[in-house]
Amino acid sequence: MGKRTISTVLIFTFLSITLVGPAAAHGKTSDTSPPEARRQFLLEKMETLTGIPWYLLAAMDQYERNVQRSRPDLKEKKGLIAITVPSRLWTGVTNPDPEDTIPESILFFGGIGRDGNRDGKADPNNELDVLYTVTRFLSRYGHTWDDLREGLWNYYQHPTPIDIITHIAEVYKHYGTTQLDGNHFLMPLRYNYTYHNTWGDRRGYGGLRIHEGTDVFADYGTPVLSTCYGYVELRGWNRFGGWRIGIRDLKNNYHYFAHLSRFNKDVKKGDVVAPGEIIGYVGSSGYGPPGTSGKFPPHLHYGMYKFNGKNTFSFDPYPYLKAWERATAKKQRDAKKKEKKRR
Ligand SMILES: [Zn+2]
């Protein structure tokens, strides 16, 4: 038996126990565990067997789920794994049958679809077949972070998914879990601030461009907080935005905070942040060379952008800000009540 055959059999055995067998017997998860926990358990097993980090697979899965949720022309894949291998990639570009599931003919036509559960079919709707196929594909390129990025490049053929997936992966890796929910309002509620629905305005401080965000007016030095779990993709100066910071969250959204007076020195490009973490302070920077400030009243410009698998587009953050403001206020009230009870 060749080395490859052995590993295939191992994967099959492990995975069939993981998915089909009584999950509770493994101690760590059970059928009643949240799907996130069961997914992570499955992907950790895949890492043991294939060397592809669980958090990268989880990020790939999350990225595809986000795309499916943001696109009316796509359906969200049911089950634990949302990864959907395009049929031409699965069966092979020259394959006359785009729904081919015969492993031998897929191989012949250069498709990447493989049979992971050993039922004789390479089925793109079977989770084990999908995971086995994707990990085999990525493994071709090697296992360093650069190798994995190269593998993702060859899989998606688009630069944005590579950044989004590797950055989501950094967040999962940092916390050791995919169960990261919750947002926070972008300033501490006890500070004075005002904001209106200004998205799409031609006024505001965006010149002649359409205003892609909400301006939150507050005094100089008011702390600016991360609204999400995310990865700092950008930090520095931009002619229009002044000192600005960009955070990628776990839902294919990019959060843009501009006109800061200064950054939190401890939060740098490439860092992972949590909701409510201070990332900088309100200012009026921008509209000139680095350091330009005071050309308009101090405020935070906050923008949200989504990538849907094809394009990046701006959307209105105002309803989200309102919802996070309410949720943050409620959380603080509840915490106070608890505190009172304890005394
Ligand atoms: Zn603005």
Automatic annotation (TrEMBL):
<dbReference type="Pfam" id="PF01551">
    <property type="entry name" value="Peptidase_M23"/>
</dbReference>
<dbReference type="InterPro" id="IPR011055">
    <property type="entry name" value="Dup_hybrid_motif"/>
</dbReference>
<feature type="signal peptide">
    <location>
        <begin position="1"/>
        <end position="25"/>
    </location>
</feature>
<keyword id="KW-0732">Signal</keyword>
<protein>
    <submittedName>
        <fullName>Peptidase M23</fullName>
    </submittedName>
</protein>
<dbReference type="InterPro" id="IPR050570">
    <property type="entry name" value="Cell_wall_metabolism_enzyme"/>
</dbReference>
<feature type="domain" description="M23ase beta-sheet core">
    <location>
        <begin position="210"/>
        <end position="309"/>
    </location>
</feature>
<dbReference type="InterPro" id="IPR016047">
    <property type="entry name" value="M23ase_b-sheet_dom"/>
</dbReference>
<dbReference type="InterPro" id="IPR023346">
    <property type="entry name" value="Lysozyme-like_dom_sf"/>
</dbReference>
<dbReference type="GO" id="GO:0004222">
    <property type="term" value="F:metalloendopeptidase activity"/>
</dbReference>
